[in-house]
Design brief:
By secondary structure, the chain is of the alpha+beta class. 29% of the residues lie in helices and 22% in strands. It is built from 13 helices and 19 strands. Strands 12, 13, 14, 15, 16, 17, 18 and 19 form an eight-stranded antiparallel beta sheet that branches. Strands 5-6-10-8-9 form a five-stranded antiparallel beta sheet. Helix 8 crosses helix 10 and helix 10 packs antiparallel against helix 11. The longest helix is centred in the C-terminal third of the chain and has 18 residues. Bound molecules: flavin-adenine dinucleotide. The site of flavin-adenine dinucleotide has 32 residues, from strand 3, helix 5 and strand 10.
């Protein structure tokens, strides 16, 4: 949300006197930690970071960006793959200290402030035996993931995160705080369900919660061959909606429970999630276990939030990735995946495969700004790189595998998009979705034209 009015200068003391939250300037302790983001290689120095405390603070910071002409970056969990949450020389509106969670067990709904991470929300909801689905990583902010759609462990059972979004409190570019839902500002409510963070700053979401009394899941590591990869996809497509799986075809990391002889060998490192009772879960998981002699089988009944394992705060990988949808992964396609993975010597390279469908696919494509309801498999191709020396060839490897895998579905999921230009943003918002988003943007944030 850049500004168009005559700039005034930024005064940190004035800002400190105005907002209820924390103002972190370059000379302050904690500045470097506060400007750090999840992905490596992004080293931006904002003029100020404001850890907002409430909606009035949000309005103040939006106004400040307009008045100073400084770029405004909005941050929830800081996991944007392109660093949209931090600005060089601009203002960071950081929601990470807004973490209130107000659950109404009777209606199975919760208001959650957007500084919560997926793991924090899930743990708070689980205290009541309830859950809302987010993504595969606990430290991802509910702000960014929800606004883009949200594809996670409950996607086939309950749909995208936005399919459980009932309302939001949003501060728009003009500083107004709006409560939006299906009946109030329905166009804006439609847009924020998949359209990303382009329409204002959301301070709270109201979500539907589900009872997940029992859950079976965890890590299953299988030796990767083309047959096992194709078999895995077939099993995931045949599985009941209760089962959502994420198959990472990659070299095995040197995990303590993986025999040393297997370190670095191509495996399917699968994250399995069965939202149902243990006995049916075992039945649904059996076809995956039968694909090969598991290298590690850590599937177990567990409380749902336990699927979010511990994370290392200092982990900031240098990665290149591209996202795509595919229609099918049969044996020849699996062979292509294996050949490309074998041809690279990057320490970490992965084809991440997620079979979609289920509840996500039962929502009409135009019901929200996420238009890819009919897409069958989401694929993320990624590799780590070490620096300038190998970046180009690692990027070429990603492009090569993506090109080799391209089928008819040319869409893209916005939350996994890298900096790939307008054509790919258009791929995230095909046809009428783009026009509808542009109209909502023109109505609620007429000062900026791009999305
Ligand atoms: C390790 C990792 C794993 C991931 N796994 C999944 C997954 O399984 N499923 C999935 O769907 N996605 C996944 N993602 C993608 C993730 O959903 C996006 O990167 C998401 O944008 C991150 O949200 P965030 O709040 O953490 O990030 P941020 O960088 O804080 O925000 C991302 C974007 O959203 C905007 N934004 C954030 N909060 C608000 C708000 N309250 N109001 C307005 N705008 C806001 C920001 O301005 C920014 O443009 C993953 C990403 C990573 C890095």
């Amino acid at each position: 949300m850049p500004s168009s009015s005559t700039p005034t200068s930024l005064s940190i003391p004035d800002l400190r006197a105005t907002v209820h939250g924390r103002v972190i300037a370059p000379a302050d302790d904690g500045y470097d930690k506060a400007r750090a983001v999840f992905v490596g290689g992004i080293d931006r120095h904002p003029a100020v970071i404001v850890r907002v405390a409430d909606a009035p603070d949000v309005a103040t910071v939006i106004a400040l960006a307009r008045e100073t002409g400084l770029e405004l970056a909005v941050r929830s969990g800081g996991h944007s793959s392109v660093g949209h949450c931090v600005s060089e020389g601009g203002i960071v509106l950081d929601l990470s200290e807004m973490k209130a969670f107000d659950v109404d067990v009777a209606t199975r709904t919760a208001w959650a402030e957007t500084g919560l991470t997926a793991a924090e929300y899930s743990t708070a909801a689980w205290a009541h035996g309830l859950a809302t689905g987010f993504g595969d990583t606990g430290s991802v902010g509910i702000g960014g993931i929800t606004l883009g759609g949200g594809v996670g462990y409950l996607v086939r059972k309950y749909g995208l995160t936005i399919d459980d979004l009932l309302a939001a409190d949003i501060v728009t570019a003009d500083g107004a705080l709006l409560r939006i839902d299906a009946d109030h500002h329905p166009d804006l409510f439609w847009a924020i369900r998949g359209g990303g963070g382009n329409f204002g700053v959301v301070t709270r979401f109201r979500y539907r919660l589900h009872e997940v009394p029992s859950f079976v899941g965890g890590l299953l590591i299988l030796p990767a061959t083309a047959e096992v990869v194709a078999g895995f996809i077939a099993a995931a497509e045949a599985a009941p909606d209760e089962l959502s799986a994420i198959a990472n075809v990659m070299p095995s990391p040197p995990m303590p429970f993986v025999p040393e002889a297997d370190h670095g060998k191509l495996v399917i490192l699968a994250l399995m999630a069965y939202a149902g009772d243990a006995e049916s879960g075992e039945r649904a998981l059996a076809p995956f276990r039968a694909l090969g002699q598991p290298i590690a089988d850590m599937l177990a009944a567990m409380p749902y939030p336990q699927i979010y394992g511990p994370e290392d705060d200092s982990y900031h990988p240098l990665a290149i990735s591209k996202t795509m949808f595919m229609d099918h992964i049969d044996l020849p396609v699996a062979e292509t995946i294996m050949e490309h993975l074998e041809a690279s010597d990057a320490a970490m390279r992965v084809a991440q495969l997620r079979v979609l469908g289920g509840a996500m696919a039962r929502v009409p494509s135009d019901a929200t700004a996420f238009a890819h309801r009919a897409s069958r498999i989401m694929v993320n191709v990624a590799t780590f790189y070490e620096g300038a020396d190998d970046k180009e060839r690692r990027a070429a490897w990603v492009d090569g595998l993506v090109a080799a895998l391209q089928q008819d579905d040319r869409g893209a999921y916005v939350n996994f998009l890298a900096d790939e230009g307008e054509e790919r943003i258009r791929a995230a918002y095909p046809g009428a979705t783009w026009d509808r988003l542009a109209a909502v943007k023109a109505r609620y944030d007429p000062t900026t034209s791009s999305g």
